[in-house]
Design goal:
Layout (H helix, E strand, L loop, with lengths): L5 E4 L6 E2 L2 H10 L6 H7 L7 H6 L5 H18 L10 H9 L2 E2 L1 H12 L3 E6 L9 H14 L2 E4 H4 L6 H11 L6 E5 L2 H9 L3 E4 L3 H12 L18 E6 L5 E7 L4 E5 L13 H6 L3 E6 L17 H15 L4 E6 L1 H12 L4 E7 L15 H4 L5 H18 L2 H12 L9 H6 L3 H5 L6 H4 L2 H14 L2 H5 L4 H9 L10 E6 L20 E6 L5 H4 L1 H15 L11
Parallel strand pairs: 1-4, 1-6, 4-5, 6-7, 10-11, 10-12, 12-13, 13-14, 14-15
Antiparallel strand pairs: 2-3, 8-9, 9-11
Helix pairs in contact: 1-5, 2-4, 13-14
């Protein structure tokens, strides 16, 4: 059997559960004969008739409904059936539109995509110009994140089971039919695909279809999927220059309430790669800022440019540039500090705020909430190493960024069982040499391609900017002294990680004193829940966002 490189899915009856129940209920409410619609519909099931024209895009839904309604009245009159005045083809179409995504199928799509297979959605669809057209658009937007290509009959001008539309799907995927698997719930479509050489599955139910798909591909599509990630070049990215002359690069996708993602050290915006699609698919406008000192954003060498005050004002200027009056801020690491700072200093711009691992640490005036690591640096000793030797060590660290990232990851990681004393080796000037002896969990967080991308971003900016975040303790203390006694009034989320060695859960014990609308969640992992437990992180975050925005989730948060 030819190795499979692609899987093609039908939409209605496969990815979306068939809407028969809603239509049946509508017919029953009107007290029409059981097979009235099927019999009336049969008149359109001839080539050239209205339904075929609808699926080929020759006519729109409104045009079809006008014809079909007349056809229903004509059929009713000829068969002495009295149609109630409440009968409406528009209402019938509305009931048809109320479909439910099949989460098991979507989970399988995510697994296949993560395994590197090309995924296509091939559907006989319509040009919806009705007052319900937004429903279809909302449903299709998340699918465009999951599927590499979507082929719709109404835009291609050919409908299944015509072989031309199958060849078009293969062309878009750059495969031949023998390299594909096709799933559909209609036997005539399956037969047509099989004749072309495709492996086919006639879908009766999800369990049956996925069991067959597992057998054909050799991929366990029944396990829980790792959330799909966004890849550079596949989502919108842009740069703006604030009124203060700061260039901020960012990545944006989705439509809905704005959610601003603020990353920490040292992975940059890419640490959110498995959250961005999930948030967008669940109805949010997601903006991941590449913070100052990272990637293509401004990277000034002066440490004062990285004070919490300036970083906070950078984000506000960013919102001004994009015309966003208010947003939800989600941070991690130093991005978490910025998120809490925004909620305290700019409450009118903060709809809600959340943080992974980094607690809110308002000052009471007696201590510096940002200075604890300087006297007890522990796993951040490589930062002290950089500061003590500054320019002399900058070139050394940057000569082997891959090894540097391995050191940082091991330093933070909760399963650090290394016998190498990082703190001692660093102060002895042997950071990169000792790193070669350390087993690093980096490979569990990033594959080779992703790691190479991270290294490319760091090469653009260098290390100095990101390490300057750790050098403004006194300025940061003064910034928080301005809001002594102030509480955060907006909804807030604190997600802790039970095994985080640098920000243990106990660091957040005081937060209820400062935040009245605080929600809490915890995961059994280390400092990067977004990378270590992406599915669980997505569910917690999306459930909280949906609750805060009083909205339902259109798709499973597993994605």
């Amino acid at each position: 059997m030819t190795m499979k490189k692609a899987v093609i899915f039908d939409l209605y009856g496969v990815i979306f559960r068939r809407p028969q129940g809603g239509i049946t209920k509508y017919i029953q409410e009107l007290k029409l004969p059981e097979f009235f619609l099927e019999n009336a519909f049969a008149h359109a099931e001839q080539p050239g008739d209205a339904f075929f024209q609808l699926e080929k895009g020759d006519i729109s839904v409104t045009q079809f409904l006008d014809r079909f309604e007349k056809q229903c009245f004509s059929y009713a009159n000829s068969n002495e059936i009295k149609l109630p005045s409440a009968f409406s083809a528009q209402n019938l179409y509305f009931n048809f539109s109320q479909t439910i995504p099949d989460e098991e199928m979507l989970n399988a799509v995510a697994i296949l995509k993560n395994k590197g297979l090309k995924i296509c959605l091939l559907t006989n669809n319509f040009l919806d110009d009705t007052s319900y057209r937004g429903t279809l658009a909302v449903k299709f937007l998340p699918l465009r994140f999951l599927f590499d290509n979507i082929v719709e009959s109404c835009h291609f001008g050919v409908r299944k089971p015509d072989p031309k539309i199958f060849f078009e799907a293969c062309r878009k995927l750059d495969v031949i039919p023998e390299q594909t698997v096709f799933l559909d719930d209609l036997s005539e479509n399956v037969k047509s695909a099989r004749k072309l050489g495709m492996s086919t599955i006639l879908v009766k139910n999800s369990k049956q279809a996925l069991s067959e798909l597992k057998k054909i591909t050799g991929i366990d599509v029944l396990q829980r999927a790792v959330p799909v990630s966004c890849q550079p070049g596949q989502i919108s990215e842009c740069s703006i220059i604030t009124k203060d002359g700061v260039k901020l690069h960012y990545f944006e996708v989705g439509h809905g309430p704005p959610v601003i993602l603020l990353h920490g050290y040292p992975f940059g915006w890419y640490c959110w790669r498995r959250q961005i699609p999930a948030l967008a698919m669940n109805g949010y406008r997601v903006i991941a800022i590449e913070m100052k000192g990272y990637g293509e954003s401004s990277c000034p060498p002066e440490k004062s440019e990285y004070s919490l005050e300036k970083l906070t004002r950078d984000v506000i200027s960013f919102l001004d540039s994009l015309g966003i009056s208010q947003a939800t801020f989600i941070g991690h690491g130093w991005g978490g500090h910025v998120a809490w700072s925004l909620a305290l200093h700019y409450p009118e711009r903060t709809f809600a705020v959340g943080s992974f691992n980094t607690p809110a640490s308002p000052s009471d005036g007696s201590s510096n909430p940002f200075g604890h690591w300087r006297t007890n640096s522990g796993n951040l000793d490589h930062v002290m190493y950089f500061q003590e030797y500054e320019e002399k060590r900058e070139a050394e660290l940057e000569q082997d960024l891959k090894r540097f990232l391995h050191v940082v990851t091991r330093a933070y990681h909760w399963e650090n069982k290394s016998s190498v004393n990082i703190k001692t080796s660093v102060r002895n000037g042997g950071l990169l040499e000792e790193a070669a002896k350390i087993d690093s969990p980096m490979d569990t967080l990033f594959d080779d391609e992703e790691l190479n991308y991270l290294i490319q971003r760091i090469r653009k900016s260098g290390l100095r900017g990101m390490l300057n975040y750790f050098k403004n303790h006194e300025d940061n203390k003064k910034w928080h002294l301005k809001v002594i006694g102030r509480k955060i009034q907006c909804p807030a989320l604190m997600l802790t990680a039970s095994q985080d060695q640098f920000c243990p859960p106990g660091c957040s014990n005081h937060m209820e004193l400062w935040i009245s609308k605080l929600s809490r969640a915890s995961l059994d992992c280390g400092h990067w829940p977004m990378l270590e437990k992406p599915a669980e992180s997505n569910k917690l975050l999306i459930d909280w966002l949906n609750n805060v925005h009083a909205k339902a989730s259109p798709l499973t948060s597993l994605l």
